[in-house]
Amino acid sequence: MSIGSAFLLGIVQGIAEFLPISSSGHLSVLQNLFGSAAPGEGHMFFDVLLHLGTLISICIMFWSDIIDMAREVLSYFGTMLLRAPANNRGAEKKPIYERNLAAGRLFFMIVMATIPLFFIVTLNDSIEKLYYKTTFIGVSFLLTGAMLFVADKMKPGIKTEKSMTVTDALIIGLCQAVATIPGLSRSGTTITAGIATGLERSFAVKFSFLMSLPAVLGANLIALIKAAKEGIVWANVPSYFVGMFTATIAGIFAISLMKYISKKSKFGYFAYYCIGAGVLTIVLSLVF
Predict the structure, then answer these.
(1) Distance CA 247, CA 10 (A)
(2) How far apart are CA 200 and CA 160, in angstroms?
(3) Which has the closest alpha carbon to 274: 165, 123, 151?
(4) CB 3.0–4.6 Å: which of 6, 58, 143, 185 could bond 20 by disulfide?
């Protein structure tokens, strides 16, 4: 793989991972139609590094939230272990999702939203086969576009980490699990689900990105095992790291853009793009 190809795929991964246009769909179309990273050339390891790049960008952009969640969760369990004084013991023993701790509740909701992914793991092999069906990916792009149109028309909600429910988190998590299908945007699907459950638009975007942390980390661990079995083309390693670095920078840009767009309620622009990408993908799949 050339450094130029890695650079291009890094940009696609970083931008499409966070903009609601499906990174998996775009990467699969590029690989299927143009052979950007053909199977058998260590592409699994490259995919791991691309996703690691986007993982780093999330950590950079939401570092303060991650630190706050870690601090409150550790404080909660530390208090439980040390046993609170008798006059305050009842309050301290409340489940973290019932306590008035915003970051702690956010962490708990992310855990709840991650649960549906464990059930989708059993279908992983079947889902992977869809990555090579370009026409199917084109149809999924069209579905993503339709979802974004709906999201733009929904009435803004008011829920945040302080008021969203476990049911809200599970619904959004189920939508994230469905969005493992290539061509369905993970961010677009989960943001739409968040708005549909009554989340405030900016918080729906924030929750969508933060809930991707365990999902991307888990997917990377699975992919890393497969990459080890497939083997690594060491001559391509410099190109791989160029792709990872590019994905990180592009991811930071995309997250910043999504934060801005969420305040303007302009997801409809991405709907037009996804519909155009879907039509083009279907046409190209019939030509090539």
Answers:
(1) 4
(2) 6
(3) 151
(4) 185
| Distance of alpha carbon 12 from alpha carbon 14, whole angstroms | 6
Tokens of 123: 């279908």
Give the C-alpha distances (Å, rounded to integers) separating 100 from 51, 76, 83, 106, 257.
34, 12, 19, 11, 31
Token digits for 174? Answer: 């189920």
Q: For residue 108, what are the contacts with CB-CB under 8 A and spacing of at least 6? A: 95, 96, 97
pLDDT of residue 40: 44
Judged against a pLDDT cut of 60, whether residue 171 lies above it is answered with yes
Tokens of 44: 């699994």
Closest Cα to residue 42, out of 179, 223, 172, 206?
A: 223
- Residue pair 115/173 in contact (Cβ under 8 Å)? The answer is yes
Cα separation, 114 vs 135, in Å, equals 29
pTM: 0.84
Domain boundaries, given as residue ranges, for the chain: 3-287
Q: Is the model's pLDDT at 98 over the cut of 70? A: no
**How far apart (Å, rounded) are the C-alpha atoms in residues 195 and 204?**
6
Any alpha helices (H) in the chain, and if so which ranges? 3-18, 23-34, 43-61, 63-82, 89-92, 102-120, 124-130, 134-153, 166-178, 186-196, 201-210, 212-230, 237-264, 268-287
